[in-house]
Predict the 3D structure of the following.
Amino acid sequence: MGLLDRLSGLLGLKKKEVHVLCLGLDNSGKTTIINKLKPSNAQSQDIVPTIGFSIEKFKSSSLSFTVFDMSGQGRYRNLWEHYYKDGQAIIFVIDSSDKLRMVVAKEELDTLLNHPGMQKPTKAIRMCQSFWNWRFGQFGTPDQFIFKCCLDIKHRRIPILFFANKMDLRDSVTSVKVSQLLCLESIKDKPWHI
């Protein structure tokens, strides 16, 4: 089982075609991580900072990935929300060696989690889903159900993988400390893993 298969398992993805948003502050290593996820024959030798966003498409095993590599520079972070509706999963990359900007990463994560497009399903949506299951049987995941009902992303539970990057650097903090600094234990309405 390859890294991407394990990644899709951790994120709870069951589809064959997956749209992933890769978010995080600038210089956290998002583009490098995406590059390493691609098959070796598709990897780039030169990695440059992302301006705005880039889209990477690649296949691994039985999965087809479309990854939206979003720039983490302050002036581009407001673009993130325009792609929430397209995302089926999020990889949030944290530079574990940059303690000074961990607060900024926390603020951006809070903005992401509190965005109207990221909220958990309402009681009405859950009732509608129960009716759907009763009337038509279970057809796929809740995400597929919601897609069929033409509802927007705010009613989906998008899985998040937190990638504590640069752990090999001397001044980095542990993944446990990153989890504490970002208050990840308080995330109750979305599946996540660090």
Notes: Confidence is low (pLDDT under 50) at residues 139-154. The longest helix spans residues 123-136. Residues 63 and 100 are 37 Å apart (CA to CA).
